[in-house]
Amino acid sequence: MRSGFEILEHTADVGIRAWGATLAEALEQAARGLIELLGAGLEGPGRTRRVVVEAEDAGALAVGFLNELLFLHETEEAGFAAVRVVRADDRRAEAEVELVPLPGEPEGTAVKAATYHRLAVERRPDGIVEVRVYLDV
Amino acid sequence: MAMEPRKIEPFVWEIPLGAVPGMRVPGIVYADDELMRKAIDDRAIEQVANVATLPGIVRASYAMPDIHWGYGFPIGGVAATSVEDGVISPGGVGFDIACGVRLLRTELEWEAEVRPRIHELVEALGRHIPRGVGTKGRMRLSRGEVEKVLLEGVRYPLSRGVGTERDAEFCEDRGVLEDARPEEVSDKAIARGAPQLGSLGAGNHFLEVQVVEEVFDARAAAAMQLFEGQVCVMLHTGSRGMGHQVCTDHLKVMDRVMPKLGIEVPDRQLACVPLRHEAAERYLGAMRAAANFARANRHVLTDGVREAFAAAFGKGPRELGVEVVYDVAHNLAKIETFAVDGRRRELCVHRKGATRAFGPGHPELPSAYREIGQPVIIPGSMGTASYVLVGTVESAERSFSSTCHGAGRAMSRTKAKKLKSGPQVRQELEAMGITLAAAHWGLLAEEAPYAYKDVSKVVDVCEGAGLSRKVARLRPVGVVKG
């Protein structure tokens, strides 16, 4: 598969490995992983919000992006109908997020934050960009 | 890792210098053979060694018997760094700043008084204790009010008539950490925290109705006014979204500043800066503010517990005697003074999933506990025993006055969910005579008893190693889950 994600096992916490043809695609997949973990995927249409994240490098960018989604999830008490990463380079990502009010308590894992633990963003020999982030749950 | 830990005393293991490159001090792990084997298997031992590379770390990188793999620091890790030339690492505190446990006692006896009304009580607690993701807390605050909580901790809800002076007295630091800097707490953190004061949250946070099942130390139990058959309430929660955002914000700063200072760490989550650096002072100020929020959170929830008891028993809280035994954090960094090599030194003690455990005679303890030592509240996993311990004098030498914080996870959440479903776990707990209220049942299996280590073993190792002593064991009869 050219893009996708998987949930990584960890005794106390949980990780996401996400990949895509571009960094933007990999970030979008990481977001899908987070939303699945949270149990916060909802049917649209919702309100569209623009999310812009800036960081020193691609790793910090991935952490910052997921933390931004967690912030919206908690403060807006919302789930996600869609996340589209419009563009991303190593220091800046721009995304459109479709938020839908949570109908009740989500049936997923509560996530506190994305961490820098074993953080990795790399371009594989086959050209695919892979992101690995661990979460504090 | 180049070298295996070696046993140097019963319950004490050393990770020698050189186990990972750049270690400045050895690692010391308190464990029995089985707990050690588990720690090696899940690579937590390597994390203890990684922490030993932090600049200015003093004596050793310690791990408590409930050690397990964390993100950067191991959970159960204790690291003291020199204020003069050491660093502070927000990862050594964690995202849930000042997450902790509060034990409330009552005048009620289980068999005769509470058992017949346990369903009403758990239902009332479910109504009075907001919980789950996001959630609106018991106190909705304006921005100005949030800043007061950040600065004053439990003093702010007290000024609004919530709780009593006695509640504050029996909280670590009397419920207020000095030198908090609300101005270092971002707008985002305030936006997350403002609606959440007086809420339990989700994940491993919980409230339990418990019964004192066995008293091991009659004198200490008497000082805490605990007796066998007595009903107590244990609260486990922290600083909610406020703390998570403070850690997120300041980690980002340290991750950027650290490389410029020429500091290298084996895992990016160990990002740190010298305590004398401006970024360290700003983080410490914000961390203390979030810690004040956590104390105030447990203080406001206590009010909810009192209301629930009053509703279930139709009596006033005074008659029911719902009083704080103690409130202690297990994710925090504090500046404390210890004798090191015959010299008194100011140290920044990081406790990540470890509890402060001052011994008898410590001046910071409330007078009622000065002779017995600091109470330490150890929640077991859901459905299993919890413990009340006291600190020892020798723990100052052994672990910078620290002990365990709980059972410690033994299994990932995914694995736990694969073993049994939420409703299955619910059924089993109910078969054990435990009444439950949960935000929803799907997640119950993530926190099932089998996903954790045996808390009794962890507590016994703490006693065997001289880190703390057992006072009482409590068993759960009612659980309210986030």
Condensed summary:
The complex is a heterodimer of chains A (137) and B (482). Chain A is α+β, with helices and mostly antiparallel strands and 137 residues long.
Question: Could you explain how this protein is built, in words?
Answer:
The complex is a heterodimer of chains A (137) and B (482). With 137 residues, chain A is of the alpha+beta class. Chain A has a single domain, classed as Archease domain (Archease, Possible Chaperone, Chain: A, domain 1). In chain A, a hairpin with a 5-residue loop joins β1 and β2. In chain A, α1 packs parallel to α2. Chain A is globular and about 45 Å long. In chain B, α16 links the parallel β18 and β19. Chain B is globular, with a radius of gyration of 21 Å. The mean pLDDT of chain B is 94.
Structural features:
heterodimer; A: 137 residues; alpha+beta; Archease, Possible Chaperone, Chain: A, domain 1; five-stranded antiparallel beta sheet; 2 helices; B: 482 residues; eight-stranded mixed beta sheet; seven-stranded mixed beta sheet; 16 helices
Which helices and strands, and how do they pair?
The complex is a heterodimer of chains A (137) and B (482).
Chain A: E1 4-8, E2 14-20, H1 23-38, E3 47-54, H2 58-75, E4 78-89, E5 92-101, E6 113-114, E7 120-123, E8 129-136
Antiparallel strand pairs in A: 1-2, 2-8, 3-5, 4-5, 6-8, 7-8
Helix pairs in contact in A: 1-2
Chain B: E1 6-9, E2 12-15, E3 27-30, H1 33-41, H2 44-51, E4 57-68, E5 75-82, E6 87-88, E7 100-109, H3 110-114, H4 118-128, H5 143-152, H6 155-159, H7 165-169, H8 187-193, E8 206-215, H9 218-223, E9 230-237, H10 240-260, E10 273-274, H11 278-313, H12 317-320, E11 323-329, E12 331-340, E13 343-352, E14 355-356, E15 375-378, E16 386-391, H13 395-399, E17 402-403, H14 413-419, H15 422-431, E18 435-438, H16 455-464, E19 468-481
Parallel strand pairs in B: 3-4, 18-19
Antiparallel strand pairs in B: 1-2, 2-3, 4-5, 5-13, 6-10, 7-9, 7-11, 8-9, 8-19, 12-13, 14-17, 15-16, 16-19
Helix pairs in contact in B: 4-11, 5-11, 8-10, 10-11
